[in-house]
């Protein structure tokens, strides 16, 4: 067994700059992390950022020879990432797994790390420094504290109000606005802010949230800041894609065995990676397009395709799979009924709602998605994706449903997925009785609904009344309501596996 230098046995040294020459040369970071200076601040330094934007940035610097795009990561909710990274000089490894095997490389693009909740002033300072030219964000859907029904800032959120009142900021939007305000006052150069979360029109949404916060907090300065920002700050929309399951002890052991160094911040991911960015930068940026990022005029078609096909299928498989007792996404799609269901969900419910970019091969894209879901090397837990459903459903499933109902069709597969979420949050157990933990910012209210449930009608009506999740017009749609009641009943009568199998026997998309 491999043990760390701090643990018993003292056999494997920790990954650090002064230990890097122990790692095989092809896995060491290029450029040398010691030569980098910080030009990017990233809010939300979770596993996704470390497996995605940080990798592109390191590769872009390797190709261009630039050394000014080091990243200062800011962790939001917990200091755990900072605690793992700081003793490693912010180095970590990316373990790329697939049926073909496992690859590893060390990433050194992150050069500093701050804990937002403990160092708010330092975060503002970093955001305001003239050498910071790009800010990127991955703080998950809930991190924005927006109302999914209209994308605007929740002005009744106590944390938002407290930040708007002037305390050192704890919310992401508060941090960003304080940083922008400091840049405005110090006449710092222009800045590009790239939202890299799975939200529709993520850049436009973020710009609106910033504007809302300014309105709440800055009084008459809000207008002056807005007019400066209009000329000096851009918020391009982006689409990001890479599946990043939570790393396990086995991943950490494999990384140690490959590197000969212990890495407590390893991230595990798939070979696939995609980044589509609207080409609206306010100033300099890394040469991301040299290393696979696509710069386009309009991200909307890519983003809708990805959110509805990939993330929509993910959420459907997460709830139906968890109820059926599948631990991993690959377990779920290994069942022919689940695979058939997923294809039908994509083809029958989602595809007609999409505007496909010119020349884009949608058939191959969907096939590739099925392959990615089925990859057994990637142990992506259904329960990980099931997290924060109240924040994800509107963007991943409800848009598809509203669009299909509007066109006079019955999106039966998407409705079964929403019904599975309803059962997941109200029953909280899989069909064989295992407890399914509810990790959701609305957990208290969702549990209150669960406590009052009696029949499928009552459960569906109570959940549909949650305006933060279901827009009023969709909630009032009688076809939607009837489909949900039928699906909730099917799930309880047949179990998730039975309901998934039986939907395959329905004629596809009967007119409503
Ligand atoms: C997943 C996403 O956890 C989830 O909700 O659907 O993180 C998904 O893996 C990524 O968006 C893939 O790009």
Mind sketching the topology for me?
Blueprint lengths: L37 E6 L3 H5 L1 H12 L5 E6 L4 H6 L6 E7 L2 E7 L2 E6 L4 H9 L5 E4 L20 H7 L7 H15 L4 E5 L6 H16 L3 H12 E2 L3 E4 L7 H11 L7 E3 L4 E5 L15 E3 L3 H24 L5 H5 L2 H15 L11 H13 L7 H5 L2 H18 L5 H16 L15 H10 L3 H9 L7 H4 L2 H26 L9
Parallel strand pairs: 1-2, 1-6, 2-5, 3-10, 6-7, 7-8, 11-12
Antiparallel strand pairs: 3-4, 9-11
This protein binds D-mannonic acid.
D-mannonic acid binds next to helix 10 and helix 14.
Q: What do you see in this structure?
A:
The chain is α/β, with parallel strands linked by helices and 512 residues long. The chain has two domains: 2-296, NAD(P)-binding Rossmann-like Domain (Rossmann fold, 3-Layer(aba) Sandwich); 300-503, N-(1-d-carboxylethyl)-l-norvaline Dehydrogenase, domain 2 (Orthogonal Bundle). It contains 20 helices and twelve strands. The chain has a six-stranded parallel beta sheet with strand order 5-2-1-6-7-8, with helices on both faces. Strands 4-3-10 form a three-stranded mixed beta sheet, sandwiched between helices. Strands 9-11-12 form a three-stranded mixed beta sheet, covered by helices on one side. A hairpin with a 2-residue loop joins strand 3 (92-98) and strand 4 (101-107). Helix 16 crosses helix 20 (478-503) and helix 17 packs antiparallel against helix 18. The model is unreliable at 1-9 (pLDDT under 50). D-mannonic acid (CS2) binds at residues 198, 241-243, 310-311, 314, 384-385, 392. The site of D-mannonic acid has 10 residues, from helix 10 and helix 14.
């Amino acid at each position: 067994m491999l043990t760390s230098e701090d643990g018993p046995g003292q056999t494997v040294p920790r990954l650090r700059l002064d230990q890097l020459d122990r790692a095989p040369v092809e896995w060491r970071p290029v450029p040398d992390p010691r030569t980098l200076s910080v030009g990017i601040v990233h809010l939300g330094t979770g596993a996704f950022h470390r497996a995605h934007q940080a990798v592109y940035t390191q590769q872009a610097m390797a190709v261009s020879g630039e050394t000014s795009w080091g990243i200062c990561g800011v962790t939001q909710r917990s200091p755990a990432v900072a605690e793992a990274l700081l003793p490693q000089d912010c180095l970590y490894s990316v373990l790329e797994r697939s049926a073909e095997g496992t690859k590893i490389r060390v990433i050194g693009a992150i050069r500093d790390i701050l804990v937002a909740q403990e160092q708010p002033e330092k975060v503002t300072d970093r955001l305001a420094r003239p050498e910071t030219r790009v800010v990127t964000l991955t703080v998950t859907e809930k991190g924005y504290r927006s109302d999914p029904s209209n994308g605007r800032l929740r002005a009744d959120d106590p944390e938002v109000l407290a930040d708007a009142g002037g305390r050192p900021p704890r919310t992401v939007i508060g941090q960003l606005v304080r940083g922008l305000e400091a840049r405005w006052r110090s006449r710092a150069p222009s800045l590009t802010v790239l939202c890299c979360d799975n939200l529709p029109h993520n850049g436009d949404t973020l710009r609106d949230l910033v504007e809302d916060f300014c309105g709440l907090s800055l009084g008459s300065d809000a207008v002056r800041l807005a007019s400066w920002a209009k000329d000096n700050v851009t918020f391009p929309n982006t689409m990001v894609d890479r599946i990043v399951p939570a790393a396990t002890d086995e991943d950490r052991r494999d990384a140690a065995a490959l590197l000969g160094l212990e890495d407590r911040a390893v991230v595990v991911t798939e070979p696939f990676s995609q980044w589509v960015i609207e080409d609206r930068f306010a100033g300099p940026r890394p040469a991301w397009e040299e290393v696979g990022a696509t710069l386009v005029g309009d991200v909307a078609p890519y983003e809708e395709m990805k959110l509805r096909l990939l993330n929509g299928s993910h959420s459907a498989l997460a709830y139906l799979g968890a109820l059926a007792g599948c631990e991993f996404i690959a377990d779920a799609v290994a069942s022919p009924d689940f695979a058939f269901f997923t294809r039908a969900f994509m083809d029958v419910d989602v595809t007609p709602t999409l505007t496909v970019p010119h020349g884009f091969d949608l058939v191959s894209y969907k096939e590739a998605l099925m392959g990615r879901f089925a990859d057994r090397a990637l142990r992506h837990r259904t329960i990980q994706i099931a997290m924060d459903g109240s924040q994800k459903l509107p963007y991943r499933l409800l848009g598809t449903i509203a669009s299909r109902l509007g066109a006079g069709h019955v999106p039966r597969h998407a409705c079964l997925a929403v019904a599975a979420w309803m059962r997941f949050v109200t029953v909280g157990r899989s069909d064989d009785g295992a407890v399914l933990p509810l990790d959701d910012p609305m957990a208290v209210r969702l549990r209150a609904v669960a406590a009052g449930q009696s029949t499928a009608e009552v459960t569906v009506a109570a959940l549909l009344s949650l305006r933060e999740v279901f827009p009023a017009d969709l909630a009032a749609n009688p076809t939607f309501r009837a489909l949900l009641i039928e699906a909730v009943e099917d799930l309880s009568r047949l179990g998730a596996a039975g309901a998934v199998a039986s939907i395959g026997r329905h004629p596809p998309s009967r007119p409503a």
